[in-house]
Amino acid sequence: MKSERLTTPWWALRVALGATAFLAGLDKYFNLLANWPSYLSPMAAHVLPMSAATFMHIVGVIEMAVGAAILTGYCQIGGYVAAIWLIGIAVNLVTTGQYFDVAVRDVAMAVAAFTLARLTEAGVGAEAFGRAGAQSLLSSRSGVTRGSIA
Fold this sequence. Notes:
By secondary structure, the chain is mainly α. Helices cover 69% and strands 0% of the residues. The chain has helices at 7-27, 42-47, 52-71, 75-95, 100-121, 129-142. Helix 1 packs antiparallel against helix 3 (52-71) and helix 3 (52-71) runs antiparallel to helix 4. 25% of the residues are buried.
C-alpha cells in the first residue's frame, strides 16, 4: 500500500480533530456552542470539590492543549490522548441519562483520533518540526542512518 495516498486523510484528521478539540476547549470559557456544565454527569458533579463551571474551565485547558498538540504535529501522542479523553466524555454523557447521540458521536471521534495516532505511528503525514529536525541533525552528524550504523 502506498502511504502517499494516506497523506490527505491524515491531514483531514489532523486539522479536524485538532481544531475541534482546541475550539471546544476554548468555548468552555464562553458557552457559545453549548452550556457545557449541563453535560457533566450529576454523579461526577456530586463528587467534584468544585463547581461544574470551574471543572469545565479545567477541561477546556486540557482540550486546548490536546488540540494544539495535534495541530502542531504531535499527532501520535495527541491522537492517543484525544481518543482516551473522548471515550471518557462518552462514558460521562451516558451516565447523565441523556445526550446519547453526543456520546455516540464522541466514540466515533475517538476512533478517528486513534486512527490519526496509528497513521502517524506508521509514518504517514508530517512529524513535528522539532522532532524531525533533531532526528535529521543527529543522523547526519553521527553518520548513522535509520536502521543501520555506519
